[in-house]
Write a structure and sequence with these properties.
Immunoglobulin-like, hydrolase, Jelly Rolls, seven-stranded antiparallel beta sheet, glycosidase, 40% strand, single chain, TIM Barrel, mainly beta, TAT_signal, beta-galactosidase, 11 helices, nine-stranded antiparallel beta sheet, EC 3.2.1.23
Length: 940
């Protein structure tokens, strides 16, 4: 909803909204209905909007940069750069002169005359000073990612207009704050980017509560009290989320002057919170006086769960060892910067869960509260992090910021660990401060270091990861690994890493860098998305959450349901398949009987149908097997008779919430089966052949093929008089092709040309069939290690508009990122996206495509269709563009434009070459003779 200028009044953390900004003597609907209840709850008046989706306009002036020097308006919350003010800067580029000045007029309720009132900022970048009605609201606050508040009881004018003035400095006057927050490898912004509100309490009140709820049902609540009055006890009641009481009320006495009182109880057999089972409860704590009068009440959501770090063993939740499968997440949206909303938080969490992730690291600062609320509700393990990117806060600056982060976030069951900065940005003098505010005593991590019983070292190569896990003896949980610059990392290399990390006893999982490309829309660049060169395009997702290919690879590898014998299915359904599939359950808490299993028998569409996809021949479901976490079992599929006549079988697994967690498509028909159906090699008018001026011309009724008689290579093809521009092949991608002998002549009703070579290429045979299908048989000989090998052709990229193919798709692949694609008939239109750098159109058109049975290239001349008679063909479509300074993420491509390959290269990361990322990252060893049969057809 659009907020009014005068705000919206909220009762308590989850109370009902009532009319705000009332003049003296007025009463809102909720107050009239239940004034007594309202008087005992914390009241909140939003001065800004509640999030970036629902802002409120304030008066604003920026002191330098764009639109500086004159007053206008700006939505709050927001970062001012996204509304035409100031300057954009990425890390390392300090602009201490840039400030924003805000003014806002509001009217608080008249009955607040008898309340203590606090002005609360949820987050303001970076140094903030506020005045209320001309008086200082409190000391300057330094630190851009933290909640802070000032008591304004004596400065507020209830029932009257009040003027709030705020000055926000983009940089801090404290050098340690700038080093920790502003000199980091991420975008730096300015402004009040999280909500601003007033909180009104009774004179004697509960300031906050901190909950420690264990998996066995024991519950401790630290109630922090403030003010003086007649209250003499605390009474608490646990309920489920519907409000039904759980157990009996429990109490603790309050003595005069108490500022902290501990309540304890135990709940019998609570439903435990985990990322797989995010069961939540609520507790209300009431401060009462002797006559049973409630003075103040607060309530909080929480979950019963226990987190343990067992040195030399692993990380346990509720007594069960877990593996964290996560990503690093910046809080960012391309049109609003760090100002976000619950809508964006939900989107990100659901996308992570779609990838079968169970964890997230908040890099490199604490997130919005709505993100943590949703992590609790939806089920996601969280590492909550103090800012400090390679530099740290000094003690004076850092101590209140640790207190702010922990006291704000302490009750979220999703948070497993606190992170004290990042990559050297930790001040060890602050380590003990976390426990002072956290009754759960969560472990503190130093991301990048071996600390707190966990080695979190970043970007270890595959071999060093193996040594750490097998030879050192500490728990290993890298808080950053497989840095996914552009199209590298993340899914690329993950299969090798996870086979290692998933099986080793000391592994606690890890966090990929990073979830999204940190790109922003620049109005000063005509609306272009800026990712700061190669500094910020590190995402599995694009800036607007576009899914890159690694998204699907991660989903595949991190699925909790996996094949126990994957090698049996690498070439489709095995010949002895009888409907039984051995599965492994990688859940930590969930039996596979809660999942649903559905199968389909598929018939793929053909090139002549000119559409992608398939027809479902038959379908059904299978009874979910009873497989406990960490064990294996058998799924039995009730397939109908004649099922082998289908082209493929599809098996989909969905979880209890209906979310797809894994899908396999296994071929039944072979490449040769498809070739026999599609290629027309039967009788017809004889093909003519002639040799003129070293050009061999083969002509059927509608198709004419020319070959260079000096090389044996294709020179051109026309169909019905239209040039299809395919030429100069099949040239070997590695080595030479020196023609030694050329023969040609009729072959039945067709015409055949045979070429013999010295060098890598050994033999080529062309045959033009009466139907116009052009058959190519080739053989080459290669040994040794190579990034790629096969043969290729030239074809102008400018004449291509799209492609339809039967094979793995819809995304391109690399040697170390073959998972996450599925066999089907796919279509994609031509695009020239440089992954993570511009365009963000996915799937990318250009690159390597796996297990192609046939492909129909859409060109300005018509359809150029290629059919493979052999399995495991890689089709290369042109050479993609890469972003600036791609480091190890620009793999080699062969000469030419279209290639038919037996091996393709792997891709690296920002920091490591492909060979350092595991066995599949190295070159392929060629073992001698290779040969294939391809068929080409041309049509309008």
């Amino acid at each position: 909803m659009q907020m009014s200028r005068r705000g919206v009044l909220i009762l308590g953390a989850v109370g009902a909204a009532v009319a705000g900004g009332l003049p003296a003597g007025s009463a809102g609907a909720a107050e009239a209905a239940d004034a007594a209840d309202a008087s005992t709850r914390t009241e909140r008046l939003y001065l800004s909007g509640e999030d970036a989706d629902h802002p409120v306009d304030w008066d604003f002036l920026c002191t330098s940069g764009r639109r500086s020097g004159s007053w206008g308006t700006i939505p709050v919350p927001s970062n001012w750069e996204f509304h035409g003010y100031g300057t954009y800067n990425y890390g390392w580029n300090l602009r201490p002169e840039e400030k924003g000045r805000y003014r806002h007029t509001f009217t608080p309720p008249a009955h607040w005359r008898d309340r203590r009132v606090f002005l609360v900022f949820e987050g303001s970048m970076t140094e903030t000073e506020a005045w209320l009605n001309g008086e200082s609201a409190g000391p300057v606050h330094r630190g851009g990612f933290y909640r802070f508040r000032h008591e304004v009881t004596g400065k507020l004018r209830p029932g009257q207009d009040n003027l709030l003035e705020v000055t926000v400095s983009k940089e801090s006057t404290d050098d340690s704050v700038n080093r920790a927050e502003r000199l980091g490898d991420y975008w730096n912004f300015g402004g009040i980017y999280r909500p601003v509100h007033l909180e009104a309490f009774p004179l004697q009140h509960i300031e906050r509560i901190a909950v420690d709820a264990r998996a066995d049902g024991t519950l401790r609540i630290d109630a922090h009290l403030s003010g003086t009055g007649s209250a003499d006890r605390l009474v608490a009641q646990v309920t489920d989320l519907s409000g039904r009481p759980v157990g009996a009320p429990f109490t603790a006495a309050v003595a005069p002057g108490d500022t902290k009182v501990i309540l304890k109880t135990a709940v019998d057999s609570p439903r435990q919170w985990t990322a797989e089972t995010p069961h939540l409860y609520r507790v209300e704590v009431a401060l009462r006086a002797g006559d049973d009068r409630t003075v103040h009440r607060v309530d909080e959501r929480f979950g019963f769960r226990t987190v343990e770090v067992r040195p030399g063993d692993g990380v346990y939740v509720n007594g069960v060892k877990i593996l964290l499968k996560g990503a690093n997440r910046h809080t960012i949206w391309p049109t609003s910067g760090r100002a976000t909303s619950a809508r964006i938080s939900r989107k990100d969490i659901l996308l992570m869960q779609e990838m079968n992730m169970n964890a997230v690291r908040m890099s490199h600062y604490p997130p919005d509260t709505h993100f943590l609320d949703l992590a609790d509700e939806l089920g996601l393990y969280v590492l909550d992090e103090l800012a400090g990117w390679q530099k740290f806060y000094d003690e004076e600056a850092g101590r209140p910021l640790v207190a702010s982060m922990v006291t704000r976030d302490v009750n979220h069951p999703s948070i497993l660990f606190w992170c004290n900065g990042n990559e050297g940005g930790w001040n060890t003098a602050l380590d003990a401060d976390y426990a002072r505010h956290d009754p759960q005593q969560r472990t503190v991590l130093h991301p990048w270091a071996n600390f707190g019983g966990i080695n979190t070292d970043h970007y270890e190569a595959y071999d060093s990861t193996r040594r750490i896990l097998q030879e050192q003896g500490d728990i290993f949980m890298p808080t950053e690994f497989l840095h996914c610059l552009y199209d590298g990392g993340a899914g690329a290399g993950l299969d090798d890493y996870w086979k290692l990390m998933g099986r080793e006893r000391l592994s606690a999982g890890g966090f990929l860098w990073a979830l999204v490309d940190e790109g922003i829309v620049r109005d000063d660049l005509g609306g272009a998305i800026d990712v700061a060169g190669n500094a910020a395009p590190d995402g599995i997702l694009g800036p607007f959450r576009e899914k890159e290919a690694s998204f699907y690879t991660i989903k595949d590898i991190w699925s909790p349901v996996q094949l126990a014998e994957p090698e049996r299915f690498t070439s489709g359904l095995p010949a002895d398949f009888d409907g039984r599939i051995r599965l492994t359950n990688h859940y930590a808490f969930t039996n596979t009987r809660t999942c649903q299993f559905a199968w389909q028998l598929l018939d793929f569409h053909t090139p002549s149908q000119r559409r992608d996809g398939h027809t479902v021949r038959a379908q059904g479901t299978a009874s979910a097997p009873d497989i406990e976490p960490g064990t294996e079992g058998v799924l039995r599929l009730p397939l109908p008779s004649g099922w082998r006549r289908a082209d493929a079988m599809d098996l989909t697994v969905t979880d209890a919430d209906g979310r797809e967690i894994r899908r396999w498509t296994w071929t039944i028909a072979s490449a040769a089966d498809h070739a026999r159906r599609l290629v027309q090699t039967g009788p017809g008018p004889a093909v003519r052949g002639s040799l003129t001026d070293n050009t061999l011309t083969l002509a059927s009724r509608h198709t004419t093929v020319t070959l260079d008689a000096t090389t044996g290579m294709l020179a051109g093809v026309t169909h019905r008089g239209t040039d299809f521009a395919l030429s100069r092949g099949p040239l070997p991608t590695t080595g030479t092709a020196d023609l030694t002998r050329l023969t040609h002549g009729p072959d039945g009703n067709g015409y055949m040309v045979q070429a013999e070579y010295s060098g890598v290429l050994r033999h080529v045979r062309w045959r033009l069939h009466p139907s116009g299908w052009l058959q190519l048989d080739y053989r080459y000989h290669l040994t040794g290690e190579h990034d790629l090998f096969g043969v290729g052709f030239d074809h102008p990229e400018s004449q291509v508009t799209g492609v339809t193919w039967l094979g793995h798709g819809p995304h391109r692949v690399w040697k170390n990122r073959l998972r996450g694609v599925a066999t089907d008939v796919w279509t994609k239109q031509y695009n020239d996206t440089a992954t993570g750098a511009d365009g963000w159109v996915y799937p990318e058109f250009k690159g390597y495509h796996a297990d192609v049975r046939w492909a129909s290239l859409h060109t300005t001349a018509g359809r150029l269709t290629v059919v493979s008679e052999d399995e495991n063909l890689y089709l290369r479509l042109f050479t993609p563009r890469f972003g600036p300074d791609p480091r190890h993420t620009a793999p080699p491509f062969p000469k030419g434009d279209l290639s038919f390959l037996d091996a393709i290269p792997a891709i690296g990361t920002k920091f490591d070459a492909p060979a350092a990322l595991g066995p599949s990252g190295g070159p392929t060893t060629a073992t001698g003779d290779y040969g294939r049969t391809l068929y080409f057809s041309f049509s309008q």
